[in-house]
Amino acid sequence: MGTRAFLSYNATGAQGSSQDTWKFILVGKAGAGKSATGNTLLGKKEFASRLGARPVTQACRAGSMRWSGREVLVIDTPDFFCPAARDMEACRELNRCIVLSTPGPHALVLVTQLGRYTAEDKEAVKRVREIFGDGAMRHMVVLFTRKEDLAVDSLHDYVRLSDNKDLKGLIAACGDRYCAFNNRATEVERGQQVKELMGIAENMVQENGGRCYTNELY
């Protein structure tokens, strides 16, 4: 049975369905740092995050913060973007993600590790497109973890000089929206990182007419 056949939850129980609430879904392969990125964004340890042989995040969870007078709901996701994750449990968590993000996300934040955009990342992006549709790319921001590894180079130069054609193609498809996080940053640096991401998101939402992304899933 296909993934979409399981998407039958009633979304009336979703949190913060008002357009006054922006909803960000963290997407990407397991181990890319989605949970740690969510904690950095929220400024608190909302999601379990640690190094391990198996993915730590087993279920969708949401945390919220206030930004410029607006509530922002951040949704952490388990590994249902892996092509092999098509069992009942994965579909149940996908259902939960849809319910939490109803009436639709304002941003899909694709988390990938700096210098490690691999075939697994590429497959995860393909899976995102399968689930949310190609139109979701208009609402996607690429977020690199391990910003500290840039050393003296700028992120812009890293992307511009990269010989990874898949990565460059992804960034182009996302409208050149990207930033980087050091998830071990000091509070001052953390605030600067969050401000940059929120600025990118605000511009993207304006370009999208102030609307969240929605399709037949919602």
In brief:
The protein is an alpha/beta fold. The chain has helices at about 35-40, 90-100, 120-130, 155-160, 165-175, 185-205, and strands at about 20-25, 60-65, 70-75, 105-115, 140-145, 180. It has a 6-stranded mixed sheet, sandwiched between helices.
Structural account:
The protein is of the alpha/beta class and 218 residues long. The chain has a single domain (22-204), classed as P-loop containing nucleotide triphosphate hydrolases (Rossmann fold). The chain is 34% helix and 17% strand. It has six helices and six strands, in the order E-H-E-E-H-E-H-E-H-H-E-H. The protein has a six-stranded mixed sheet with strand order 2-3-1-4-5-6, with helices on both faces. It is globular. The model is unreliable at 1-18 (pLDDT under 50). This is AIG1-type G domain-containing protein. Keywords: GTP-binding, Nucleotide-binding. GO terms for molecular function: GTP binding.
| Spans where pLDDT lies below 50 across 5 or more residues | 1-18
Annotated CATH topology? Rossmann fold
Give the amount of beta strand, in percent. Answer: 15-25%
Distance between the termini: 19 Å
Number of helices, counting only DSSP H or I runs of 4 residues or more? 6
- Which strand order does the major sheet show? 2-3-1-4-5-6
